Design the sequence.
RNA sequence: GCCGCAUUCGUCUAGAGGCCCAGGACACCGCCCUCUCAAGGCGGAGAUCAUCGGUUCGAAUCCGAUAUGCGGUACCA
């Protein structure tokens, strides 16, 4: 195992977001590729917005995607595992406090007693003067006596970090050299609130340092924050990690992907029948590519872990394209082995039964027998109900409109269905197989001068209620002789 | 406003000075296969590589400016 340590640090203030999953995946793949360690840390300091339900959604979601972490809270028990715990930011407050005290003691930080009103007034004045908003440094050089005075008057004071004047440079793993002048950081920034709780920028750095994170791979929205983090790592006397900033995932209008404009919760995609292989594959290709002018893009997690590299990470943002996701999803569903597929289909059938879309749930054997004709027709797992639901419900649509094929009229349809019923009835229950059914029905069409396709369509709709179904004769077999005959009778009656 | 990042077919991307009047994939169109729908095969359309200027014998690739978009600018994460 290499010394490379990467992490994902989600904050449980919402369900697992597509962007978080993608960042987690890239970190995971990078760890796989380099033989490093992948850590998960919960950034739960925003107590007001964090919930355990979100926590479970995030942990469970990543786990279901197969993005497993070497250290962090266990997905099932939520117990920490790994030598650098605790892996919940809230439980690391002593470390944050100690780090802040250290900075204070070395005068790298100082207490600031400015009130919100004062700060607000500063900001307005700067705005009026067309200056960039920045902390004016009112409390930067208070004497001990002055400090004692403010404390005595009941003010607790936040802690601000002294920002030195210099240009911060780093060689971004995906973007190359970046430099930012600390003059643009807005002055000495707060690292600990007056209530004693640390701010994000401070807590991440302390935690990342403590957890010996070597490579920070995160979203592009953190580029501007990176100088603050580098300053803090240095002030704390810790090694500055490498940074790599990933492009953002975008809404169709090219703004940062948001719940408002796109479906962002991984759990929603899972509920719609997207499989983990499809999601992982798609997410990996959002911003990264295997390189080369052509080549297979259907890649398993294992393969991705073997091939992933930061050099091929795209710099521009990527619009989320659901159609491509669906295509990849279909590719993966086709590749699943039968028993696996059956297991994954079952929850969707259970839901359909609860909804009343089907009356019963097929047995595993029944499903297995069906797979040869349905597996390649499923863009998503939930599509099984639309595709084959006619097998498990007796309530099928019987409206005259769809019952009558395009080139036929109602009378011909009745006639055709009646004749077909006769042929089908002739096929005994024991030999009720596709090979036995097709020849007589084709012969019938030929005798009567009908296009076989028209006859078949009439039967299809009569028996399934739909115009798009798995192959007809296999469908008839799956339905069984008695139900086929009964449905044909019902359709004939409906056309009367 | 200031700072930063980005910009190749509708979308995801290949491309690291000549192999590119730009390749692949999704979507789209057509054909083949075919009982429908898919899947699969074949083919097509689709990008003056944001714009302008420079460097060079030669630029999508290097440099600069401009434009546009996005991100950041909190005692939010």
Sequence:
């Amino acid at each position: 195992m290499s010394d490379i340590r990467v992490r994902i640090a989600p904050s449980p203030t919402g369900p697992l977001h597509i962007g978080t999953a993608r960042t987690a995946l890239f970190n995971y793949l990078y760890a796989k590729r380099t033989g490093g360690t992948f850590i998960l840390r919960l950034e739960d300091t925003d107590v007001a917005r964090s919930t355990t339900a979100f926590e479970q959604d995030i942990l469970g979601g990543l786990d279901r995607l197969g993005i497993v972490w070497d250290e962090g809270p266990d997905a099932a028990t939520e117990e920490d595992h790994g030598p650098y715990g605790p892996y919940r930011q809230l439980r690391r407050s002593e470390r944050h406090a100690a780090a802040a005290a250290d900075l204070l003691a070395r005068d790298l930080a100082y207490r600031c007693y400015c009130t919100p009103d004062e700060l607000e007034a500063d900001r307005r004045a700067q705005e009026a003067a067309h200056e960039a908003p920045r902390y004016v440094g009112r409390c930067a050089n208070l004497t001990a006596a002055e400090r004692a005075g403010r404390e005595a008057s009941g003010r607790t004071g936040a802690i601000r970090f002294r920002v030195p004047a210099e240009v911060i440079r780093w060689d971004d793993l995906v973007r190359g050299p970046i430099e930012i002048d600390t003059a643009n950081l807005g002055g000495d920034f707060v690292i600990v609130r007056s209530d004693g709780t640390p701010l994000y920028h401070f807590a991440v750095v302390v935690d990342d340092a403590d957890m010996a994170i070597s490579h920070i791979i995160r979203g592009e929205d953190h580029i501007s924050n990176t100088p603050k983090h580098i300053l803090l790592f240095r002030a704390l006397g810790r090694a500055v990690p490498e940074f790599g900033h990933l492009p953002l995932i975008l809404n169709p209008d090219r703004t940062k992907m948001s719940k408002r404009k796109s479906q962002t919760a991984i759990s929603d995609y899972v509920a719609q029948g997207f499989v983990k292989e499809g999601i992982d594959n798609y997410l990996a290709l959002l911003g990264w590519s295997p390189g080369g002018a052509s080549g297979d893009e259907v890649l398993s997690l294992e393969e991705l872990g073997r091939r992933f590299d930061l050099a091929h990470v795209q710099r521009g943002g990527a619009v989320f394209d659901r159609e491509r996701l669906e295509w990849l999803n279909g590719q993966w569903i086709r590749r699943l082995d039968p028993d696996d597929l059956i297991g994954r289909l079952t929850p969707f059938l259970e839901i359909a039964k609860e909804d009343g879309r089907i009356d019963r749930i097929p047995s595993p054997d029944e499903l297995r027998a069906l797979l040869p004709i349905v597996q390649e027709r499923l863009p998503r797992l939930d599509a099984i109900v639309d595709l084959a639901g006619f097998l498990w419900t007796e309530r099928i649509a019987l409206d005259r409109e769809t019952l009558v094929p395009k080139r036929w009229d109602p009378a011909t349809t009745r006639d055709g269905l009646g004749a077909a019923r006769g042929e089908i009835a002739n096929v005994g229950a024991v030999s009720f197989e596709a090979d036995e059914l097709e020849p007589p029905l084709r012969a019938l069409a030929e005798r009567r001068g009908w296009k076989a396709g028209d006859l078949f369509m009439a039967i299809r709709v009569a028996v399934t209620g739909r115009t798009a179904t798995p192959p007809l004769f296999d469908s008839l077999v799956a339905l069984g002789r008695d139900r086929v005959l009964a449905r044909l009778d019902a359709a004939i009656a409906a056309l009367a």
Q: What stands out?
A: The first helix of chain A runs from residue 18 to 34. DSSP finds 20 helices and 13 strands in chain A.
